[in-house]
Amino acid sequence: MVVANEVINIILGDGFLKRVEQAGNLMKRNAGVLEQVRGSGLLLGLRCKELVLAVGAGENVIRLLPPLNISDDEISEGLLRLERAVRSC
Description:
Layout: H1 2-11, H2 16-27, E1 34-40, E2 43-48, E3 61-64, H3 72-87
Antiparallel strand pairs: 1-2, 2-3
């Protein structure tokens, strides 16, 4: 219970959910290989123009579930790697 209460305190803390929303918006950057970005915050599904082999969330959709405390640098690196992987197919 102590851990659960601490997690709730962090989530409800000043600016935490706003930061999650900002991070989600960064991840919605269309790298030219996506048809659609679904979801909100950091719970996103990316519908790809090309077939991508990954853990799916539907037809040709990649499910992303990064930690809520992901940094902007980590988002940029992840999107860069995803873009490179899709373009290499």
